[in-house]
Design a protein that fits this description.
The protein is about 20% helix and about 20% strand. It is α+β, with helices and mostly antiparallel strands. About 20% of the residues are buried.
């Protein structure tokens, strides 16, 4: 059994590997740099320069409106892409403490990916549920990648629950920090 679990762990870690840049996989892991948003307004120095360069554009009629759009609702995007709330498919709570509101494409069961959202529809984690039988059978597993950066990964055993009633491992790709996991704690 120990050899099977070790092989399974290697296979699961391969699922989350960055395949876009294979040469970078051998470099030491560095956490992703924090992303900054592009400025939504022209800095004051540039505005003054533009006003001096084009004095005829000072009237309100000639000013460009700057539209700031909020980010897309990630839960609605998932539903548009065929994901359904697990609680609508099986007898499962709408909000599951520790993972949040869980969505899945029914045809990807039991592996997933399962998308976990907090109460404000923010994606906090992607979960793969890998049956022990598939690990013991040395089965190759392929899962969809994640377009959202992964902060850390959790791997733990589950004896079974509605939707995936066989013993399995949860491979949780957290898109938030450990401190932010509290969003789905209760």
């Amino acid at each position: 059994m120990r050899n099977g679990v070790g092989t399974a762990l290697v296979a699961l870690l391969a699922l989350i590997g960055d395949v876009r840049h294979p040469a970078a996989q051998f470099a030491p892991f560095l956490p992703p740099a924090p992303q900054t948003l592009a400025p939504t307004a022209t800095p004051p120095a540039e505005k003054a320069e533009q006003t001096r360069a084009a004095p005829h554009r000072r009237s309100k009629a000639h000013r460009k409106r700057e539209v700031v759009r909020p980010p897309a609702n990630q839960r609605k995007v998932a539903e548009t892409n065929g994901y359904r709330r697990v609680s609508d498919l099986v007898n499962f709570p709408k909000f599951f403490p520790g993972l949040g509101i869980i969505f899945v494409k029914p045809d990807t069961l039991p592996l997933g990916p399962f998308l976990c959202f907090d109460r404000r529809d923010r994606l906090v984690a992607t979960v793969y549920m890998v049956p022990i039988k598939d690990i013991d059978d040395h089965k190759s597993l392929d899962g969809a990648g994640s377009a959202t950066p992964v902060d850390h990964v959790s791997l733990y055993f589950n004896p079974g629950h509605p939707g995936v009633d066989v013993p399995h491992y949860h491979v949780v790709l957290w898109h938030v920090t450990r401190k932010q996991e509290a969003r789905v704690a209760k």
